Amino acid sequence: MKEFIKKLLTNNSGxxxxxxxxVAVTVIGCIILLCCGFVxxxxxxxxxxxxxxxxxxxxxxxAVAGLFVSAGITKAWGERxxxxxxx
Length: 87
Fold this sequence. Notes:
Largest sheet: 2 strands, antiparallel
Number of helices: 3
Helix content: over 70%
Number of domains: 1
Number of strands: 2
Strand content: under 5%
Distance between the termini: 35 Å
Oligomer: single chain
Radius of gyration: 18 Å
Mean pLDDT: 87
């Protein structure tokens, strides 16, 4: 497992903080989304209906998607600039 994480965080120039940020945000975002899904499923099983504010849940999902986008753009711009410097 340790070797897998090391390979995941390594790029052409060594261990990258941008890659770590991307992996960390992805893992945390997936955990948040799984919690939201679990709460909805638990509520349906327990009461048979959904009383949760779905507009608020949509806002949470949109915020997590924004985190994914910010991490992805940071990584993409960094790699693009790194590739331009090497040419």
